[in-house]
Design a protein that fits this description.
Layout: E1 9-13, E2 30-31, E3 34-35, H1 36-44, E4 50-54, H2 59-63, E5 69-70, H3 80-90, E6 95-100, H4 110-121, E7 125-130, E8 133-142, H5 146-154, H6 160-165, E9 169-173, H7 187-194
Parallel strand pairs: 1-4, 1-6, 4-5, 7-9
Antiparallel strand pairs: 2-3, 6-8, 7-8
Helix pairs in contact: 3-5
């Protein structure tokens, strides 16, 4: 069931190079009549109090979607953690949740389920999984992990899994909706999903 807007800050990750899609900006790619990031925002906005878009190029185009746009505070397209890092710096809530721009089917109850599990486990981070497969860029964390993340990045850490492994992390099973985590990484996948031949 759709959530009712938790007091959390959402970060939509649009800051990558889109290497597997030929170097294009994935969030801005046309998908079923709209930019792909618009589908993500439509599902994500009702779940959180505020949304930031994490982007390192085409900033004006992203601003047109009506949310503040944050550039990475770390140079060199440092990956999802750099986007989360920027969001943690700007967050006005105690919880920050990140999602990728290339997953237009994300669960409408993602944030509530992650937040519930985080509180139950008294963890620093909650990460979505389906079956045995974690989805590390679908995660919710406490703002209090900012200092820890800054130190990890300053030491050259970039891998999301490695950072989670250094914290108290709870995995949250979404086995009831595995298709919601389908992401679109290549132009071929984009064409397949755009045609409606896949969900």
């Amino acid at each position: 069931m759709p959530s009712m807007g938790l007091d959390a800050t959402g970060v939509v990750l649009c800051g990558g190079r889109g290497t597997r899609m030929g170097g294009v900006d994935k969030g801005l790619q046309p998908f079923r009549g709209r930019a792909m990031v618009e589908w993500v925002l439509e599902r994500f906005e009702p779940q959180v109090a505020d949304v930031f878009i994490s982007a390192n190029q085409n900033l004006e185009r992203y601003l047109a979607f009506g949310h503040p746009v944050l550039r990475d505070r770390i140079e060199g397209f440092a990956g999802p953690l750099a986007g989360l890092h920027a969001g943690l710096f700007q967050a006005r809530s105690e919880l920050v949740v990140m999602v990728p721009c290339d997953s237009p089917f994300l669960p409408s109850d993602l944030v509530h389920r992650l937040a519930f599990a985080l509180e139950q486990a008294d963890a620093g981070v909650a990460v979505a999984k389906t079956g045995g497969q974690p989805h590390p860029v679908f995660s919710l964390c406490r703002v209090s992990v900012l200092e820890h993340l800054s130190a990890f990045l300053d030491c050259g850490g970039r891998k999301v899994d490695a950072w989670y492994a250094s914290l108290k992390t709870v995995e949250v099973d979404f086995a009831d909706q595995p298709e919601s985590f389908r992401n679109i990484n290549t132009l071929e996948e984009l064409q397949t999903f755009d045609s409606g031949s896949a969900r």
